[in-house]
Structures are given as structure tokens and as C-alpha cells.
Design a protein that fits this description.
Elements lengths: L5 E7 L2 H6 L5 H4 L4 E6 L4 H11 L4 E5 L3 E2 L4 H15 L3 E5 L1 E4 L4 E7 L4 E4 L8 E4 L3 E5 L16 H11 L3 E4 L5 E2 L10 H12 L6 E2 L4 E2 L4 H21 L9 H7 L2 H5 L2
Parallel strand pairs: 1-2, 1-3, 5-11, 7-12
Antiparallel strand pairs: 3-10, 4-12, 5-10, 6-7, 6-9, 7-8, 13-14
């Protein structure tokens, strides 16, 4: 596995969240993997393209600042990359959670906003339509970069999968669970809606496109249903606790408790 070089990158806007979560990941605390934080970026695409333009690594792992990577996680990613080199030489991007064109959810992560584990519908096979942005692993020699015109910090997991397909490259979900130590997004208006509208126009000839949150269609009716559903869910959670649900206080202990290190090092 040592012949591949890898870096981890994250868009950072909260140093405390970074320190409490991603920075505790053993692959980072040990110094085995270089970490590239990008601060004050106007969009995810701007942040991540900065990393791609400056790195010579074979793989770039783009991860949210509020994600904990269990011990041994990067070694697993390198192993999965080697496997895909053999089984799907055209691969360009992989993630830890995604959805197929038929609407089948794949992968496994701990969701902090829902306070439960999200587990996909079985195996990891299927033509991927969208990857969750929580973790994206990009193979740099695939020649892809993120669309600089895509605004804000949403929908780029869907966009990069569609860009890969346009380039004749494949996307994959792998079994490499992480703890997403997040709190609920109160509304899907704003940045999420802007990203949805952007992809509506960009990929008009490919619609509908299924994502884990909603489906992108010409009319956009699924967006309004998703916004209403999300508004109801966030209000219920806030009513139940009085405030937004608290973040996990010990991501290291949680990863061990749910068996992620055992899975990663199996």
C-alpha cells in the first residue's frame, strides 16, 4: 500500500469543531498522513480545487471538519483503491455513503444529527448517482476537479459523480465507516437550494438524478417536499431537546462502541 501517496483535506470554518473531531483521527494525530486545511473558502469547490492544484498526491481525501476517521481508516482506503485499480480501472471517485441510480442507499456512517447509524441496503454494488459529501476520495490522475461555478457547500458530491460519468469514469461506495459528528441543518433553503438549482440546469439532459436527500428533476417538486420534510424534522428535534441536539462528546469512544475500528481493521 505504501506506493500510493495520500493527503486529507478539509474546508475549515470552526477551529473548535476541527479540534474536537477530525483532528483527533489517529491517522492525523500520528502524522502519518498530511492534513491540508483550507480556511475562508467561499465554496467547497473553491476550497477543494485549491488543494487539487497544489498537491502531487495520488489520492486526495476530502472530508468534513466534523468527521472522525477511526484508527486504521486510511490504510483501508489505500487497500480499497488498489482493489478498484484491479476491478474497475476507470474509477475516479469513491465515498463512504451514496445512492444508486435506482435509489438504493449504500454505505455505513454514524449520523450525529440523527443520533443513529445509517446503514445502506445491503451490498455495495450498483451504478452510483450521488455520493454524500461527508467523505469523498478523488483519484487525481482521473483528471477531475470540482466545478468552480457550483455555489456554496452542497450538492458537489452529486456533481462530481456526474462529471466522472461524463468523462467515462466510475464512482463507488466502499465499506469504510466514519463518525459524522454533526448537528442538524435547520433549513434546506439557501445554499442547498442554490446547489439544487445549479445542477438542474447543468445536468438537464440527465434528469432525474437521485441523491440521498432528494431527487433533482426538471420541475423541482422533490426539493419542496424535502424542504418541508426537513423543516418538520429539525423542529421536532429542537422541541424534543430545547436546542439543537448536542454533538457527540467523545467521538473516539463512539467509534469503538459501534465497532468501526473492528470493521476498518478487519
Amino acid at each position: 500500500m505504501s506506493h500510493r501517496s495520500v493527503v486529507i483535506a478539509a474546508a475549515v470554518n470552526n477551529e473548535q469543531i476541527l479540534a474536537d473531531t477530525l483532528a483527533l483521527s489517529p491517522d492525523l494525530t500520528s502524522g502519518r498522513v498530511k492534513f491540508i486545511p483550507v480556511r475562508a473558502a467561499e465554496s467547497a469547490s473553491a476550497a477543494y480545487n485549491t488543494v487539487l492544484s497544489e498537491t502531487t498526491a495520488d489520492l486526495v481525501i476530502f472530508v468534513h471538519q466534523d468527521v472522525y476517521l477511526p484508527a486504521g481508516w486510511v490504510a483501508l482506503i489505500l487497500s480499497e483503491a488498489l482493489r478498484l485499480d484491479q476491478e474497475s480501472p476507470d474509477w475516479a471517485v469513491m465515498g463512504v455513503y451514496g445512492i444508486t441510480r435506482e435509489g438504493k442507499h449504500l454505505g455505513r456512517i454514524w449520523s450525529g444529527d440523527q443520533q443513529l447509524e445509517l446503514v445502506g441496503d445491503g451490498g455495495l454494488s450498483g451504478a452510483i448517482a450521488s455520493l454524500d459529501e461527508v467523505v469523498l476520495i478523488l483519484r487525481t490522475n482521473a483528471g477531475l476537479s470540482f466545478d468552480p461555478d457550483l455555489p456554496h457547500f452542497h450538492m458537489y458530491g452529486t456533481d462530481i459523480v456526474q462529471m466522472a460519468a461524463s468523462a467515462g469514469r466510475s464512482a463507488h461506495v466502499i465499506q469504510a465507516p466514519v463518525v459524522h459528528n454533526t448537528i442538524p441543518v435547520v433549513s434546506l433553503a439557501g445554499g442547498f437550494t442554490a446547489g439544487y438549482r445549479f445542477l438542474q440546469k447543468k445536468w438537464a439532459v440527465r434528469l432525474p438524478i437521485v441523491t440521498s436527500m432528494t431527487t433533482i428533476t426538471h420541475a423541482g417538486l422533490p426539493l419542496f417536499r424535502a424542504r418541508a420534510r426537513h423543516w418538520w424534522y429539525s423542529r421536532r428535534m429542537i422541541k424534543r431537546s430545547g436546542i439543537e441536539p448536542p454533538r457527540v462528546t467523545d467521538v473516539v469512544a463512539l467509534a469503538k462502541a459501534v465497532g468501526y475500528e473492528s470493521i476498518v481493521n478487519a
